[in-house]
Predict the structure.
Amino acid sequence: MSLSGATIAYYPNFIDFSESKLLVKQLFQDIAWRQDNISMFGKTVDIPRLQAWYGDKNASYTYSKLTLLPFDWTPLLLRLKQQVSEFCQQDFNGMLANCYRDHRDSVSWHSDDEPELGEQPVIASLSLGCQRMFHLKHKDSRESVKLPLQSGSLLVMSGATQQNWRHAIHKTRIEKPMRINLTFRNIQ
């Protein structure tokens, strides 16, 4: 995918579609999901999705003043991490799991630009379950792009992508079943 100031690659069939449907059920059962909250405009609000942070022993992760300490890799998550790491030729040491329970769950506009990710992080995002629309918007030009992330797909963002672009998964009025997204990162 060619975008100004971004390095983005999309692999729609990274995992076989039928296997991806089985994985979403297994991960929903296995992952230690949490309903975290953050402070916005002086109010404490629930994050509109479930999440969990897994990683190597010292790979804690902080965003929006929320510090996540890693759970130990499960055998399934470790297998998926190794598969994604080998494909991307990148050693990931942490993974943020997001569960979008239905069409009402979302993630607002943001960049994965926290200091512990480094200046030009590689973020590998594995989508499982329901297809959702991934929105990208350039920080300066406001150019925007939409990409449907199908089950079993891998989206890799690297280079200056996080410096120049924001991304989001919006709520929708169209009913959607569950989607699980695993975003592999390297905490420095």
User: Anything to note?
Assistant: The longest helix spans residues 17-30.
